[in-house]
């Protein structure tokens, strides 16, 4: 079946969005983002795993090469991820994946040695049980953003003060192997890394009910990132909601950086009914929303790169506080209001209603206790596991 898919991919008609895909502009446009998503989620890359993943890495590297960006890994845009186990692979390969990266040198000589990362993994589930999993939202949407932000910054007349590394990790879906390899083999001194920003699943709507929302997790790891996430204003029609990263556990490539106490931001619009299914298709992406999100992320990345005070690791003990309460309360209210979108069993509905009431009580009280936060984490993780 895999051979048949590859043959069909090689015999396919010319890519209809090639002109939009290759357009170069200092502005982020909806049609360019759409072209990237359709390319990355197409049959050419076979769900971006195996041989298709290797071709996707070369494709992303070529996109970086077309811009005035330097290769992130010495003289290469690719960082091989080696097979580290003592037992040889059955196919004899010594490389199991490859990260892709480029960077824009900082414009301030006093700050150029400092660096920040903007990242989005490109791998997905490949072909399973005879079905290709295109991964349009997971995570072609994130890579499309990454390529467009890299293009906008590279072509803008005013460059960021610190160096910005644009990294697309491999093997996120297999235990965060790509990002783990990266942090143990960084392309420049890790102590100079000031912040890590990463996007994963940014083209849809959480549970199908949070249409205008972008969730930002990790701001609570640093007072500076808290201030930044509030200061960058979204365009009309986009709402930025702050959540604590511990509400969802280790869900993406921020994990290895967090474990090394690197301040980070994680951007996502949340899981939906097509998550990790063959139905995660490019025609289901909200491209207008993805455009607004990409522009917001570009502005946030620039602020970190140009900030006088770089983020310092100092996690808030109660997470994002009432901002987080408001976001989860809105999610529960909308889920209860739309049973046709979020079907709930009788027991689930009762728990949602009880959780909504407690969230409202916390919001009305205007303070969150340590016990409230522990309850909120458990409730959110139960909802993710059992409902969303």
What's the topology here?
Elements: H1 2-10, H2 18-22, H3 30-40, H4 51-65, E1 70-71, E2 78-82, E3 95-104, E4 115-119, E5 126-128, E6 131-133, H5 136-155, E7 163-168, H6 177-184, E8 193-199, E9 213-217, H7 223-231, E10 239-243, H8 255-258, E11 264-268, H9 287-306, H10 322-337, H11 346-365, H12 370-386
Parallel strand pairs: 4-7, 4-8, 8-11, 9-10
Antiparallel strand pairs: 1-3, 2-3, 3-7, 5-6, 9-11
Helix pairs in contact: 3-5, 3-9, 5-9, 10-11
Structure overview:
- The chain is α/β, with parallel strands linked by helices and 388 residues long.
- It has two domains: 16-306, 3-Layer(aba) Sandwich (Aminopeptidase); 322-386.
- Helices cover 40% and strands 14% of the residues.
- It contains twelve helices and eleven strands.
- The protein has helices spanning 2-10, 18-22, 30-40, 51-65, 136-155, 177-184, 223-231, 255-258, 287-306, 322-337, 346-365, 370-386, and strands at residues 70-71, 78-82, 95-104, 115-119, 126-128, 131-133, 163-168, 193-199, 213-217, 239-243, 264-268.
- The strands form two sheets. Strands 1, 2, 3, 4, 7, 8, 9, 10 and 11 form a nine-stranded mixed β-sheet that branches. It has a two-stranded antiparallel sheet with strand order 5-6.
- Helix 3 crosses helix 9 and helix 10 (322-337) packs antiparallel against helix 11 (346-365).
- The two termini are 31 Å apart.
- Mean pLDDT is 94; it is low at 1-11.
């Amino acid at each position: 079946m895999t051979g048949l898919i590859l043959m069909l991919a090689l015999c396919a008609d010319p890519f209809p969005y090639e002109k939009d895909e290759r357009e170069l502009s200092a502005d982020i446009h909806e049609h360019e983002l759409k072209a990237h998503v359709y390319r990355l989620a197409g049959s050419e890359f076979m769900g971006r795993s195996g041989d298709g993943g290797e071709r996707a890495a070369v494709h992303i590297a070529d996109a970086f090469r077309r811009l005035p960006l330097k290769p992130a890994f010495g003289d290469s845009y690719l960082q091989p991820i080696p097979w580290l186990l003592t037992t040889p692979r059955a196919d004899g390969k010594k490389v199991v994946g490859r990260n892709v990266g480029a960077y824009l040198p900082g414009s301030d000589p006093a700050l150029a040695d400092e660096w920040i990362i903007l990242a989005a993994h490109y791998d997905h589930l490949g072909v399973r049980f005879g079905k290709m999993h295109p991964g349009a939202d997971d995570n072609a949407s994130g890579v499309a953003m990454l390529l467009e932000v890299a293009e906008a910054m590279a072509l803008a007349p005013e460059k960021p003060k610190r160096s910005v590394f644009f990294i697309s990790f491999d093997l996120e879906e297999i235990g965060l192997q790509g990002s783990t390899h990266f942090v143990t083999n960084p392309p420049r001194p890790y102590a100079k890394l000031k912040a890590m920003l990463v996007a994963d699943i940014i083209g849809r709507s959480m549970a199908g009910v949070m249409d205008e929302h972008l969730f930002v997790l990790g701001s609570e790891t640093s007072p500076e990132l808290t201030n930044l996430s509030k200061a960058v204003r979204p365009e009309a029609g986009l709402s930025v909601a702050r959540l604590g990263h511990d509400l969802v556990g280790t869900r993406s490539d921020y994990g290895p950086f967090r474990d090394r106490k690197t301040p980070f931001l994680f951007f996502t619009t949340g899981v939906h009914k097509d998550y990790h299914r063959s139905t995660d298709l490019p025609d289901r992406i909200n491209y207008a929303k993805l455009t607004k999100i990409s522009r917001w992320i570009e502005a946030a990345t620039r602020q970190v790169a140009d900030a006088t005070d770089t983020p310092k690791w100092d996690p808030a003990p109660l997470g994002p506080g009432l901002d987080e309460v408001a976001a989860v309360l809105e999610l529960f209210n909308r889920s209860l209001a739309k049973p046709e979108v979020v079907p709930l069993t009788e027991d689930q509905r009762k728990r949602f209603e009880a959780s909504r009431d407690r969230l409202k009580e916390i919001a009305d009280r205007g303070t969150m206790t340590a016990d409230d936060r522990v309850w909120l984490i458990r409730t959110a993780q139960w909802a993710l596991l059992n409902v969303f």
